[in-house]
Write a structure and sequence with these properties.
5 strands; two-stranded antiparallel ribbon; alpha+beta
Length: 67
């Protein structure tokens, strides 16, 4: 339903690895990101994105494309 960033998420400055040749490569991580999940009974809860990614990768990808 929604997503949010916590204080644990990497900043834009921290989101890069510097390779030995001097090039930068983006760090791929879900650290500090949470997804708002609505359960079948109507309850909602915030779940770490890595848990959602492991259990429902297709739904997470579809959500990402929509947003």
């Amino acid at each position: 339903m929604d997503h949010r960033r916590s204080n644990d998420a990497l900043s834009k400055e921290e989101g890069w690895n510097i390779l030995p040749n001097g090039h930068q490569r983006r760090k791929v991580t879900t650290k500090g990101w949470e997804m708002l999940i609505q359960w079948e009974g109507g309850d909602e809860s915030w779940i770490p994105m890595n848990v959602v990614k492991e259990s429902n990768p297709i739904e997470l990808a579809e959500y990402s494309v929509r947003r």
